[in-house]
Amino acid sequence: MPTMAGAFAYDLYKSHAQMSSGNLMLVAVGFIVSFICAWIVMKTFLGYVARHGFSLFVWWRLAVGAAGLLGA
What we know:
Blueprint: H1 2-14, H2 21-52, H3 55-71
């Protein structure tokens, strides 16, 4: 999260001259929607992990990693 916040702040600083009120509204809406979606996903994931543990997540990561290596 700190890295993403820093990247967002830096990008906003670099492009502040190009921002209009319409663009600021889009950025604000995008930030709010992204925050809500991330909160829902993390709450759901942590609830799942609390009930079932990390075993399924580990197998999923191994499968995706192997598919990525085979596709590269």
